[in-house]
What we know:
Helix content: over 70%
Number of helices: 10
Strand content: under 5%
Largest sheet: none
Distance between the termini: 18 Å
Number of strands: 0
Structural class: mainly alpha
Shape: elongated
Amino acid sequence: MVLKQPWTLLKCLPAVFVWPWPIPRSETPDEISLWNERGRALASRGDYGSAILAFNKALEISPQHCATWNNKGVVFGLRKEYDRAVETFDTALRYGCDNDPALWCNRGLALFNLKRYEEAMESYDRALQIRPDFAVAWQNKGDLLMAQKRCHEAQKAYAEALRLEPDYPSARAGLLNAERCIEAER
Length: 186
């Protein structure tokens, strides 16, 4: 059984105030942040359509704002629109956001859900190349390896996630599944 990992970015969102009025347009970086935070807050409440509109507003102001592209891709993933999520992450990469491990990890998760395993593995590996201590990427890599019945490799990936974050429930459950898989192979 493969455990579903929640989308990396939204898993760690703090509570953010949702503005009840329109924010006037200006060209300040603060406005970009406000639209981005508004989108994150709307997404955390499950209002994905409004979140995408808020992210689009931020991208109108600054089309190269990497965090906003990542957040928008995450929301498409939450809507199970994995193809659109990958397109969004790829757009971010074209804008030079290729040093963001969360973006690579989220791209990998969208590709995983599309069963494009080789590309997903490349994305997880890129995330880990940028940030070797990224426990979520290790855990997601373990899930991918389990989906491919590569139990021994999955066990190592989960173990690394737990070494980095000892209280990581998804990685602990994944490790138990990998160990069961290894036992069943004997």
